[in-house]
DNA sequence: TCCTAAGCGAGACGGTACGTCTTGTCTTCCA
DNA sequence: TGGAAGACAAGACGTACCGTCTCGCTTAGGA
């Protein structure tokens, strides 16, 4: 197969992904039409459908690329599992800082304007990160590992959302402290739990 | 205003709410068209738009009714705030049992098939319940109350989702124990946290 | 039967006829909806349909009344047939003057804005007038009487239309002269017809 | 512009014009809905609106085409103005014969079932024909030329209508004689006019 | 150097759903 | 008990997208 074609095709796909991103920031995912996207990308209608089955496919494929990039980036870093023993949920601080820097994107992706697909994809990515940090076996063996993973991911997203919506002025470090406080120690310290 | 009109109008609205519920169970919210709903409800197109601005309005109005019913039901019960000191998150067990009984509905509402609006409405209802159970002041004063509320609601929905998706065989009591374990005590007991 | 009801009914009908006339002047017949009419007449929907089968029926019924009034008015006048021998098409001058005085109404009724029904009703009324003026038997017996009637009515309406559309400045007497010239003597005097 | 599109578009437009004609014969113009037309033409709703703004536009555009065809056909014929001196209103006989052959179409177009638009378009076409036959200057200079044109057109349509409605058995030649009799010589020969 | 096969833009097309509008019916209220 | 009020089912309107399709144009690789 001539590789020139590959190159052209790749350029087209990139243009479409870029257009999607731009437009999602501007109007949100649900409000976009395929027509908007191909106008923004300056691409023919049939070309769009030659590459993707619809705007959802385009969105998913974008996250697919992102996931692969992240995987490569991570495989370069030595196993952090050991470090995580002393410093659990090590990913969180970096993520909050990243989110602060790219607040517009995060807001779009997470605040409903990204649609259900986006949120799901983000959960998958976060779940992957959390899974790698979590010790392979949990003490007591009462909690399934993937349940714990979902719990952490959910708490993280809740925190991010609350931050953006209600207290955008807080520093990443402050938000991180709150996140870690709740996730690691739960509510008991806050309500003077009398159990036992 | 003649009350006959009220009665007819109420019947029409009820038929539409019922149709929406039926169809959401069958095909999910996003896939529904207004045409589907009015066909199911056997109602004229213009009648639909005389009552609601669209399917989202219909959905919201349904939750509005639900919320009012719940409020009335709750106002009958004596304040549970006192009891919640000994037994925090008292709502959870009853909710898990309720969810088990009406699994189909919960699955539809929560598992993405209900759409973003539904999830948001459910969060509002749950947040209201949690807010009533949570002590008015939290110890240490480090966590904003509404953040804690969002954390609990998120954890509850995560638990529900995980239950339905991954381990539908578990008993409500088992799921409740897991939910309470994580939310009240956090991860520390599971990972042998060495901090401090 | 209580005649009070008759009176109410008559008032309702009059209100509807009046509303129709008002609105036809304002927007033209075709553009009117039943809703417009009952709003203008301040009458309930079912009331309208209790009296008329639709807006066409209302229109026709209005002309029906008009026709009866005209018939009464004419029956008072002694037979003009004799006079018409010396002065054929005697009706025309009076009609043109009337049209000039009520130009708005005529324009509405005749210039297309009145709809096909209106034009037809007007033709019926005019045909009746023409029929009365025309001698009972035509010389030569080559032309059916009703054909001649239609010819005259058509020429009259053509004249009226042309007057309003193209030369609204002309006096009724000038227009009448043109009408009579063409209808009575035809084209021959104008084109120097060489036949025979 | 690629001419393939022209070809496809032309086919679509032809199908719609054909469907309109068919349905007008069957139910009349006013009773038609756009839905009827696109069903008959087997064309998508949006396609219809891509070509025409509504059924009136479609109708007008059909007459536009017809007018262009007639113009081309006429431009082939040598100027008939000269001939018309000896034989005025030369168009009439051919038109009556044509009408007899395509009675259904004429009946639909003229008898009210064609709607106001149709009648107006037909008047325009006939006016054009009459204008070409009429000598450039009229004797006496008392009648505006376009008034005379309207008079002739009106008389022709009156004749056609009367023929179809009241005496469909007459031959084209008989009808033509009546038409020419009235239009050229007027009423005077029929009523023994005593003027002067 | 020409040929050919692919990627591509342009956009016509049949469909489906939208939210609005109008019609004629039907049920209840009120005088 | 009959007229008025207006909720309603039905369905057409014109608009917006969808996903499919056909068509020429470009462009680079192999002949």
Helix and strand topology:
Four copies of one chain form a homotetramer.
Chain A: H1 3-27, H2 34-41, H3 45-51, H4 55-76, H5 81-86, H6 91-101, H7 103-110, H8 115-133, H9 145-166, H10 172-185, H11 188-191
Helix pairs in contact in A: 1-2, 4-8, 6-10, 8-9, 9-10
The structure holds a DNA duplex (31 and 31 nucleotides).
Sum this structure up briefly.
The structure is a homotetramer of 196-residue chains. Chain A has 196 residues and is mainly α.
Outline the structure in words.
The structure is a homotetramer of 196-residue chains. The first copy, chain A, has helices spanning 3-27, 34-41, 45-51, 55-76, 81-86, 91-101, 103-110, 115-133, 145-166, 172-185, 188-191. Chain A has two domains: 1-52, Orthogonal Bundle (Arc Repressor Mutant, subunit A), CATH 1.10.10; 60-191, Tetracycline Repressor, domain 2 (Orthogonal Bundle), CATH 1.10.357. Chain A has eleven helices and no strands. The first copy, chain A, is mostly helical. The longest helix of chain A has 25 residues, at 3-27. Chain B binds a DNA duplex (31 and 31 nucleotides) through helix 1, helix 2 and helix 3.
Strand content of chain A: under 5%
Please identify the structural class of chain A as seen in this structure: mainly alpha
Under CATH at level 1, the class of the largest domain in chain A stands as Mainly Alpha
End-to-end span of chain A in angstroms? 70 Å
Oligomer: homotetramer
| Total helical elements of chain A | 11
Q: Give the SSE string of chain A.
A: HHHHHHHHHHH
Shape of chain A: elongated
Give me the count of strands of chain A.
Answer: 0
The CATH level-2 architecture of the largest domain in chain A is identified as: Orthogonal Bundle
* Biggest interchain interface, per-side counts: A-B, 48 and 48 residues
Roughly what is the average pLDDT of chain A, rounded to an integer?
89
CATH topology of the largest domain in chain A: Tetracycline Repressor, domain 2
Question: How big is the Rg of chain A?
Answer: 20 Å
Largest sheet of chain A: none
Low-confidence stretches of chain A at least 5 residues in length (pLDDT < 50)? none
The figure for the number of domains of chain A is 2
Percent helix range of chain A: over 70%
